[in-house]
Amino acid sequence: MSFFFHFGRYLLFLKSMFSKPEKTNVFIKRIFAEMVAIGIGSLPIVILVSVFQGAVTTIQTAYQLITPLIPKPTIGTVVSDSTILELAPTITSLVLAGKIGSHIASEIGTMRINEEIDALEVMGINSSSFLGLPKIISGMVMVPVLVIISIFLSEAGGIVAGQLSGALTADEFIQGARMTFKLFTLQFSLIKAFTYGFIITSVSCFHGYYTFGGALEVGESSTKAVVYSSVLILLSDYLLAELLL
Amino acid sequence: MIELKNITKSFNGKEVLKNISAVFEQGKINLVIGASGHGKSVLMRTMVGLIRVDKGDILYDNRILDFENYEKLKEIRRDIGMLFQSSALFNSSNVEENVEFPLKMFTNMTKEERLARVNFCLKSVHLENVNKKFPAEISGGMKKRVGIARAIALDIKYLFCDEPNSGLDPITSRVIDELIKEITEKFKITTVINTHDMKTVLDIGENIIFIYKGEKWWNGTNEMVRNTENKELKDFINASLV
Ligand SMILES: Nc1ncnc2c1ncn2[C@@H]1O[C@H](COP(=O)(O)OP(=O)(O)OP(=O)(O)O)[C@@H](O)[C@H]1O
Ligand SMILES: [Mg+2]
């Protein structure tokens, strides 16, 4: 019951957002500001997570495939494929759900309890669209960009770790990675990232927008935003794999 | 002129506004008075469409406030300026940006024109040299004044103030009262103020609506308030004068 209520409200929230912006140039400026906040703001954490993820995956794969029967470049193949297909988009997005999601929900939630959203409405501004739409658009643009960066850094991390640990050389890694590379894998990864970008930003805007009460409730909204976007990311990960692979 | 016709609103089965009909006149200071928790803020929020009424109509110069038609609602709201009880300034923007915001959204003024207008509005509320300060860095009374400056940045037809004087010292309160009166008369605005400040009531109240437990209990001018025979209103006035 409560699930359908919230889901219905979420859809109505999305619907209310799609209206003509009150002022186009302000709208575009807001999109760019959000892109900077989401993109540049998340860069350090994405770099950190990706490099280590690539390094660890390489070392662990090498540890599991330690038999003369399997040629060393295979390690590169396994690491590269799983990075592009799953690790870079999904793990990065889960991390971003925590970072961007909580930030968006608490920002909008604070505006709600501070009556700033009411002030926007009374001015004759569509507040859900004004606050939400730039964030959602930026999320759908910037999360794929971050995922591409994450793919590169993971591979780089893998190469360096392989080299340092003596598991395989950089050449072997790259040779392996190239062996099974398909453009569709990359496209699929970006479709995922695009979807996750939408999920993280829209779900977080929704939870922030429907905050009622005080500072405590802002905290709750922010937690809900992270939990729900993470669950939806995993769910859509499964659905997309089922649909497109 | 704003007309309310049989406004009724309940929250979780509890009637907060009971069949309120009233007229708020243009170019006059219309006051809504009443004790805390009797429904003044709820009434004001329904009037600007933030709370959906259960029953009744709200008319802005014969334009009906239609909750179903968001575009129409926005059109009426463009003519509205509002000062919230909590000031509701944009906390992540400084004073200047707060006042500039409606101009940015609804006019094609250049940056210079906007700044000139911002400074004019800030000057009208007797605020100078605070342009770059953030809401967290100014006092409650200053926030109220920035709120008024933001409300009057555009040429509005209707001004709503929810307790403009609460938390202000008596001198600043009188300044704000005079300011609102001046703006109302100069621009022929329909001004609605929620207050429990008796000084405001007696000084500038031209059309006073007394709300008691969600009902319109009494309606009259400030002259009439002084000699009213209405028991609840008398109690209300006496309580604040002793
Ligand atoms: N969103 C809401 N949900 C449920 N009840 C509400 C809501 N908003 C207001 N109320 C109730 O409506 C009644 C009137 O509240 P309102 O804020 O209008 O009082 P007020 O006259 O403005 O008081 P004050 O002078 O303290 O500002 C209160 O009993 C309050 O509990
Ligand atoms: Mg109130």
Give an overview of the whole structure.
- The complex is a heterodimer of chains A (245) and B (242).
- By secondary structure, chain A is mainly α.
- Chain A has helices at residues 2-17, 24-64, 73-113, 116-122, 127-165, 170-179, 183-209, 215-244.
- Chain A is built from eight helices and no strands.
- The model of chain A has no long low-confidence stretch (mean pLDDT 94).
- Chain A starts with a helix and ends with a helix.
- In chain A, helix 2 runs antiparallel to helix 3 and helix 5 (127-165) packs across helix 7.
- Chain A has one domain.
- By secondary structure, chain B is α/β, with parallel strands linked by helices.
- Chain B has a domain at 1-79 and 192-242: Rossmann fold (3-Layer(aba) Sandwich).
- Chain B is built from nine helices and ten strands.
- Chain B has a six-stranded mixed sheet with strand order 6-7-8-3-9-10, sandwiched between helices. A four-stranded antiparallel sheet of chain B has the order 2-1-4-5, with helices on one face.
- In chain B, helix 4 (111-124) crosses helix 5.
- Chain B is globular and about 55 Å long.
- Chain B starts with a strand and ends with a helix.
- The model of chain B has no long low-confidence stretch (mean pLDDT 92).
- The structure holds adenosine-5'-triphosphate and magnesium ion (MG).
- Residues 11, 16, 34, 36-42, 85 of chain B line the site of adenosine-5'-triphosphate.
Question: Would you spell out the secondary-structure blueprint of this structure?
Answer:
The complex is a heterodimer of chains A (245) and B (242).
Chain A: H1 2-17, H2 24-64, H3 73-113, H4 116-122, H5 127-165, H6 170-179, H7 183-209, H8 215-244
Helix pairs in contact in A: 1-5, 2-3, 2-5, 3-5, 3-6, 3-7, 3-8, 5-7, 7-8
Chain B: E1 2-11, E2 14-24, E3 29-33, H1 40-47, E4 55-60, E5 63-64, H2 70-77, E6 80-83, H3 95-106, H4 111-124, H5 140-151, E7 158-162, H6 170-187, E8 190-195, H7 198-204, E9 207-212, E10 215-220, H8 222-226, H9 231-241
Parallel strand pairs in B: 3-8, 3-9, 6-7, 7-8
Antiparallel strand pairs in B: 1-2, 1-4, 4-5, 9-10
The complex binds adenosine-5'-triphosphate and magnesium ion.
